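[audit] Reproducing an earlier prediction to check determinism. Same input, same settings, fresh worker. If the tokens differ from the archived copy the diff job will pick it up downstream; this log only records the rerun itself.
[audit] input (196 residues):
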Amino acid sequence: PEALDGLERTDQGRRLNRINLARIRAAAFEQQERWAEATEQYEAALALDDTLVFAQQGMERSRGRADLAQKLALLIDRPTRLFDAGVLKDARLLVASGETSPAPRTKLEEQLRTLAGYIEQAATPINITLLSDGLTQVTIYRVGRIGNFERHDLALRPGDYTAIGSRDGFRDVRAQFRLRPGKQPEPVLVRCIEPI
């Protein structure tokens, strides 16, 4: 019985050492804002004892921050997604939630600054000139009917657009154009010239 008791205490000591090591590693990963690795350490501690409060709280905290960091990174890597109004709205909410996240925040603040800059660019309208013949009805998808004109200036948010021209007795035309932050677009010509 004494030998079994000694073995049990040794196993208990090893388990406590592994739990303490997981706690120390998780704390270090959190300070470095390496949230996925911190989550793994908390999972390892919970695998040893699923009642550990520090690991439960740490897991919740690190999973939330890992999710936030991943979402921010996806938008930063593909800022053209912000040209969609729904994504732009979600990105603004994401930045707002990130601004209330607790420390450590060095990497997070850098991500928030970068994404906020992209949001500002995506929300700033760009001036574009449409040219036509005064006879062609012009409509821009996602914007609406513009009407007949020879020259029409308007401001649109960055994105990809399609202008449709229609005129009785003539073949409809399509003109696709891209608006990108920092680039002045060429005028877009939309006129129906091919009789049917």
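[audit] rerun output stored. Observation attached for the diff report: The radius of gyration is 29 Å.
[audit] end
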